[in-house]
């Protein structure tokens, strides 16, 4: 072997483990919301600078949303700060960025921020329905097998 006793598992289990240790879907939605708002901006940068602070904020808030989403993915210990900042930027994009990217970017950012805020790092990973059913079948089979051997005897 190449110095390790464990075989190479592949990228999917490694990614699944990485994803389980952070608020992945919330960070992804917040990033997508900011990206959507940036893509719906139609004014060129020269026009935005000419308009002034209102135009610059229209580009600044979605960039901060994208940064908050990415920082949540790569630094989940600061997730509460990033979620609150992402929510404020999402709501602020209503006024500054084409009604929050025509409501789509606003909704993605708000839902993603709420998911980030509600994520609990100490929670056990969810078990799939298939695994729960299989465990229930195994437990039922063991219980049925146990009743045949010592039926009637006190425990």
UniProtKB/TrEMBL annotation:
Protein name: DUF6114 domain-containing protein
Transmembrane segments: 22-39, 51-73, 80-96, 102-120
Pfam family, one: DUF6114
Keyword annotations of the record: Membrane, Transmembrane, Transmembrane helix
InterPro entries named among the record's database cross-references: DUF6114
Residue runs in coiled coils: none
Superkingdom to which the source organism belongs: Bacteria
